[in-house]
């Protein structure tokens, strides 16, 4: 019965490696991306695989599923191994400074480098969303996967490959830790969690203070810093040449890059975000209505989207991001741990960034006609559809000419 | 003749209608209001969506395929291909937001000119949200004069109260049927369908009208 839950296409060669790999292989992949300092933990990781996963033997129903599921996962895990490095390095480089050039579309290097990992991150993203969807399986399976999950989560050093393998079957509702882990926001080493969370949460607070500021505060602050360091900016490509035009910084300035002009442009995007946040999941009390609770949740979504838009001028805000963000926030805000629930906005922001980093090229207009842009993605989708359901493909592409 | 009219191939003419306009003006609400009488709040449209409505106008059974597009600028590269072959285009604005009105001439009319493949295609200007009369900033007169300038139909409506919603699509359909080339396009699609229907009817023994 469990077998039914894994659709045939999931077992296609696209997702799994042709030769099913035993679990230790995937742990190697996880290990290989770890810094050498963590090699000492290898024994712990290997041990976690050798020892029985569940103290109580799981019900026999789950047994037949084991081989295919681990083969599916060893494939995606090893890809994710390469991916995580990219994600973490993006994180470091992009959020270290507020003038964030890397996400801007004008710099193709940054965008195209992530392309090869797009599919795998999307798969990881899908796993994370499985968190919010209660597993529609039999009770027996729920219990065994719950046990496995709890056991994995209670380890000092979490084996991400194993966690993803368990999560790929869908896991019951619970705290947000699973989502944050699966998205790569929390490191596998539990000991690092408190410091990592504190660091990220204060970083987000800082973003909010910096980015949700109004123009007069910015100009005032800029004048101050200009007096302090009067260095010429040599490498600017005409983009973000803010510091040299103090004279143009007033509300009626015609200078395009003027802070005030940017402010008015941003107002447009902020209004768009506000409109969309108000109509995100209009059927759920959590998000919509006049209650103070719904309003504070809307405020959080709005802040996250505005901060993201400002940090990523090449992407800004695209309709549909609200739909990706909402379930993440919902899960983290409903964390039974009060401390986590209070910081849901900050945590959601970073998870959102991690999730989007896998397919952000699709959002960039300048990349529309490139191989990494949205058109190419749609073409790939169409090809996949043609391969797997030719009849539907023919109906959409030929009979009704949905696309030109 | 005795059928309920819900049979999907039971129509005389088939037209393609496109809804465009700024984000949040109520394109999807207008469509849902027309199709299902519902007036719920809706989530923003991502990309494109379409719905089919069968209804009778001027004694003809029509099948309208109505394409609903996302209003945000980012989606224009994707939505532009949906103008192709449309017999009717509805340009929607929000009477409580002036920018959505000025964007009709600044943006949307230009898009139509660029991407519409149909020279004779009927355009219609629709000012939505007239139920919020106290917040109105674009007058009816302004709407009418812009419609004259574009040479298109004009109507004010409210997706929420359903005021003028049916009329909007009815007038558009009637106007389309007045244009011989458009009528022709609509019936060729219809004819092809009738032909298919006939072939199907030949195979099973007569008697069942609804299958």
Automatic annotation (TrEMBL), chain A:
PROSITE patterns: TBC_RABGAP
Domain of life per record: Eukaryota
Bias (Low complexity): 68-79, 90-103
Stretches the record annotates as Disordered: 1-118
Domain (Rab-GAP TBC): residue spans on this chain: 250-404
Biological-process GO terms, alphabetical: intracellular protein transport
Name of protein: Rab-GAP TBC domain-containing protein
Source species of the chain: Olea europaea subsp. europaea
TrEMBL record, chain B:
Major site of localization recorded for this protein: membrane
Keywords: Cell membrane, GTP-binding, Lipoprotein, Membrane, Nucleotide-binding, Prenylation, Protein transport, Transport
SMART domains: RAB, RAN, RAS, RHO
GO molecular function list: GTP binding; GTPase activity
Localization per record: Cell membrane
Record-level GO BP terms: protein transport
Membrane topology designation: Lipid-anchor
Cited CDD domains: Rab18 (cd01863)
Cellular component terms (Gene Ontology): plasma membrane
The family this protein is said to belong to: Belongs to the small GTPase superfamily. Rab family.
Function: Intracellular vesicle trafficking and protein transport.
Protein name per UniProt: Ras-related RABC2a-like
């Amino acid at each position: 019965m469990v077998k039914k839950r894994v659709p045939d296409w999931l077992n296609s060669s696209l997702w799994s490696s042709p030769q099913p790999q035993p679990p230790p292989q995937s742990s190697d992949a996880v290990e290989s991306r770890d810094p050498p300092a963590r090699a000492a933990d290898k024994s712990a990781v290997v041990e976690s695989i050798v020892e029985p996963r569940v103290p109580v033997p799981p019900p026999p129903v789950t047994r037949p599923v084991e081989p295919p599921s681990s083969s599916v996962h060893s494939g995606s895990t090893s890809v994710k191994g390469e991916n995580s490095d990219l994600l973490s390095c993006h994180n470091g480089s992009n959020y270290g400074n507020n003038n964030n050039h890397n996400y801007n579309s004008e710099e193709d290097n940054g965008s195209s480098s992530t392309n090869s990992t797009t599919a795998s991150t999307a798969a990881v993203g899908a796993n994370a969303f499985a968190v919010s969807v209660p597993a529609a399986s039999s009770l027996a399976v729920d219990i065994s996967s719950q046990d496995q999950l709890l056991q994995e989560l209670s380890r000092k050093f979490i084996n991400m490959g194993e966690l993803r393998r368990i999560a790929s079957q869908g896991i019951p509702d619970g705290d947000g830790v699973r989502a944050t882990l699966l998205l790569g926001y929390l490191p596998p080493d539990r000991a690092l969690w408190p410091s990592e969370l504190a660091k990220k949460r204060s970083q987000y607070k800082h973003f909010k203070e910096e980015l949700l500021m109004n123009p007069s505060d910015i100009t005032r602050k800029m004048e101050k810093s200009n007096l302090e360091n009067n260095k010429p900016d040599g490498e600017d490509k005409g983009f973000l040449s803010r510091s040299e035009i103090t004279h143009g910084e007033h509300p009626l300035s015609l200078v395009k890059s003027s802070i005030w002009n940017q402010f008015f442009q941003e107002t447009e995007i902020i209004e768009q975000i506000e409109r969309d946040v108000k109509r995100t999941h209009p059927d759920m009390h959590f998000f919509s209505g006049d209650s103070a609770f719904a309003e504070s949740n809307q405020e959080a979504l709005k802040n996250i989207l505005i901060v993201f838009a400002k940090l990523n001028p090449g992407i800004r805000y695209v309709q549909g991001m609200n739909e990706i963000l909402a379930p993440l926030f919902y899960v983290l805000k409903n964390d039974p741990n009060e401390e986590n629930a209070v910081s849901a906005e900050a945590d959601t922001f970073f998870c959102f960034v991690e999730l989007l980093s896998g397919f952000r090229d699709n959002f960039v207009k300048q990349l529309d006609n490139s191989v990494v842009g949205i058109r190419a993605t749609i073409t790939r989708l169409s090809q996949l559809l043609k391969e797997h359901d030719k009849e539907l493909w023919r109906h959409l592409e030929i009979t009704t000419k949905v696309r030109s | 003749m005795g059928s309920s009219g819900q049979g999907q191939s039971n129509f005389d003419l088939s037209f393609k209608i496109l809804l465009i306009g700024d984000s949040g003006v109520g394109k999807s609400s207008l469509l849902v209001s027309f199709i299902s009488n519902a007036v719920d709040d809706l989530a923003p449209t991502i990309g494109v969506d379409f719905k089919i409505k069968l209804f009778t106008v001027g004694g003809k059974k029509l099948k309208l395929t109505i394409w609903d597009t996302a209003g945000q600028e980012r989606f224009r590269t994707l939505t532009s291909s949906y103008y192709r072959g449309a017999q009717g285009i509805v340009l929607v604005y929000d009477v409580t937001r002036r920018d959505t009105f000025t964007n009709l001439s600044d943006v949307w009319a230009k898009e139509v000119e660029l991407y519409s493949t149909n020279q004779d295609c009927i355009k219609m200007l629709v000012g939505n949200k007239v139920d919020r009369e106290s917040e109105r900033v674009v007058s009816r007169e302004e709407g009418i004069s812009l419609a004259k300038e574009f040479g298109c139909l004009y109507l004010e409506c409210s997706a929420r109260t359903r005021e003028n919603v049916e009329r909007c699509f009815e007038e558009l359909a009637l106007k389309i049927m007045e244009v011989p080339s458009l009528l022709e396009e609509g019936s060729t699609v219809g004819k092809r369908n009738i032909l298919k229907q006939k072939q199907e009817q030949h195979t099973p023994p007569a008697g069942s009208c609804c299958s």
